[in-house]
Amino acid sequence: MSKVRRGTCRVKINPRGSVCDVEHRMLLDGPILTLDFGPWTLDGLRSTVRILACAICCLFFFSQSHAQTQFGIVKGIIQDGTGAAIPNAKLVFRTRNDAVIAEGVSNADGEFVIAVPSSNAVALAVTAPGFAAFKTTLDTTGSIASDLKIVLSLVPLSERVTVTATRTETRLGDTAASVATLTQRDLLITSAITLDDSLRQVPGFSLFRRSGSRTANPTSQGVSLRGVGASGASRAVVLEDGVPLNDPFGGWVYWSRVPRTSIESVEVLSGGASHLYGTGALGGVINIAKRQPRDSALDLELSYGNEETADGSLYAGGRRDKWGASLAAQSFRTDGYIIVDPRDRGVVDVPANSRSATIVLTIERSISNNGNVFASASFFGESRSNGTPLQTNRTHIRRFVLGGDLETSETGRFTVRGYGGTQIFDQNFTAVSTSRTTEALTRLQRVPAQSVGIAAQWSRPLEKLQTLVAGVEAHEVRGASDEIAYVAGRPTSFIGAGGRERAVGLFAEDIIRLGPSVFVTAGARLDRWRNFDAHSSTRPIAPTAATTSTIFADRAETAFSPHLSLLYKPLNNLGLYISASRAFRAPTLNELYRSFRVGDVLTLANDKLLAERLTGAEAGAQLTSFGQRLNLRGTYFWAELSRPVANVTLNVQPTLITRQRQNLGRTRSRGLELALDLDLSNHWLVSGGYQFADATVLRFPANSMLEGLLVPQVPRHQFTLQARYANPSLVTVGIQARGTSTQFDDDQNRFPLDRYFTLDALVSRRITSAIDAFVAAENLFNQRYPIGLTPLRTIGSPLLMRVGFRLRLGSRQ
């Protein structure tokens, strides 16, 4: 007899015309044999011969392997609490001395069939991403074990793993940070068709204006968290697997660049995080984790709704040996609605429509059991009408990402990402007559930009009591604003402005566990950036007029961003935490050099802007109760922002309001944030959140009249509520509600935007094991709330409805 060694047995049989693929590994004493009979059917003598041949070979194999060893067949199904199948669940069988004797995975329907050596006490452990581990003991002495039905419970909120908070895997219950996680299941149950609208269920999340990316100009799609203030540039960094998605020239976000079906989860970290992520993480971080190519999978979602809205999202991925590949794509189109209030509309007002398409191709190769390299290329295109025939914009973005990951027990985990891309943004600006019967071009603008960056990180746990994280990031952006100015509908001059920015950041973090109940995290980052090659010029079209040019002086700034937090867990289900940090945001090239106009508001650039600096602290508690079915989190936060970049009003005329970007002295945002998750039963789940934010201007010597006023676009009260009933065998229903109090659209608090409340709903029904049909509705009560006063009143979308289906084949993440 040969020595005991690990072997593989793979048997494919088809007793009913459909292939059943059974794969397991076991410790055998003897030779290794692989059987693969392919797909076949039971018709005629030929099939009978093949069955007999299969049985004889199997008997010969097992008898030759170990005359003393017998095997039992363990089969069953793995489901979640709602009865839905869980594919790709891993099953591991062990002996009493903890030796692995068999392994396997569940198929797309959650089923498994595994041969296990006979024993009256075999330990079985079942694990699946997002679910708590399941363990039991089996008796496999019979020829066929009884069919098993294994029900896995979702991982409790406190047990979920977050990467964003510390740039390394950490349990939420062991993190002194406010992190909200939306899984793929959470996103599927929302009625929203865009990612930013799905994120509105996170308290404190908002864009520059109340409108979403479905109809809003892309330059207004910057993120605000915790009332730090909103502008076109995002005050939170948005990442796709660690690579920035923020526009390199303007800082705003194109939310449709990541196809929905390719998203595995989204983490929202509230609070300053520049100690890990540098510029842009002034108010927090949004990290989008994409699905990784594992086993073969195909997901397709198609829907159609009112306003001639058509949408499709596709993900296809697979793996063969060491190679993996995935293709993700999405297409969206809507005719939109007229955004101007009916009382103010004129003949020039048309629906604000939009069209977008994106495609992402990723190829990956494993280089060892603990390492891989990958390459990704993407293309994104978008076009919009912003409410009148001549006000349009277009965007084209091409981007590549190269990276690799390697982890060893001796040296830790290394991560490297390199990225770069080019883009073009075109926009037309117009002046509309007071009667809204005519409009005339004022500027045609083209903004080309290029960017390149690299990031490297190392992390390593030490004796389970300490984890070290360190890294370096660098990027360079080059962009310009090329314009044709119009007067009375005729071109008069060519205007150009732009420059370059180069930045480097170094960061380090130490996560220390002082005993079983105390966690300390200390981190710091040093960033230095430089603006150079900046210039502007104006060349009149008239041949007799002179060209004027300005060369801006090179500038450099440095920011040091420390962070310190403490988490104390006096009980297993109770955590108390406190943290303090500093954060910053450097002005974008757009804010420094590009002017723009929206409605009757002209906003001028300012090449003398300095970086925003934030000093913040927070304290809170997190409680888990009722067998981890109830999770509560409450946080008091305080953030003082010096030199915030704001749009300051310079002049008000009947047909034109002129503003300029300026460093607005000092502002403060303080308040309370509450979050609740309640798992009522296997089918019912309720969650909600509330945020109170008192955001005011503390000091502005250049215009003391603004002191004491509220920061624009920040409501004092926000609340969200989600309720879900999930029973795939019957029906799945999701409801989302959101409301905010009054906020102001301008720095002088002259234009209040009234409070609003919206209710969304989605109902889906499983048609087959692979197809779900759904109906989704946004703004069920058809509330026409204001989203802007420029001073023209614009309103939010009406009731939006769509119907569609989802096709899911193969492995499900």
In short:
With 813 residues, the protein is mainly beta. The protein has five helices and 49 strands.
What can you tell me about this protein's structure?
With 813 residues, the protein is mainly beta. Helix content is 5%, strand content 58%. It has five helices and 49 strands. The strands form nine sheets. It has a 22-stranded antiparallel β-barrel. A six-stranded antiparallel sheet has the order 1-2-5-4-7-8, with no helix packed on it. A five-stranded mixed sheet has the order 12-17-18-15-16. The protein is globular, with a radius of gyration of 29 Å.
Keywords for this entry:
813 residues; mainly beta; 22-stranded antiparallel beta barrel; 6-stranded antiparallel beta sheet; 49 strands
* Shape summary: globular
Give a quick account of the main beta sheet: strands, pairing sense, barrel closure. Answer: 22 strands, antiparallel, barrel
**Distance N terminus to C terminus?**
43 Å
Considering DSSP H and I runs of 4 or more, what fraction of the residues is helical? under 10%
Q: What would you call the structural class?
A: mainly beta
Total of helices: 5
Multimerization state: single chain
In terms of DSSP E residues, the strand content is: over 45%
Overall residue-averaged pLDDT value: 86
What Rg is obtained from the alpha carbons, in whole angstroms?
Answer: 29 Å
Low-confidence stretches are: 1-45, 54-68
Number of strands: 49
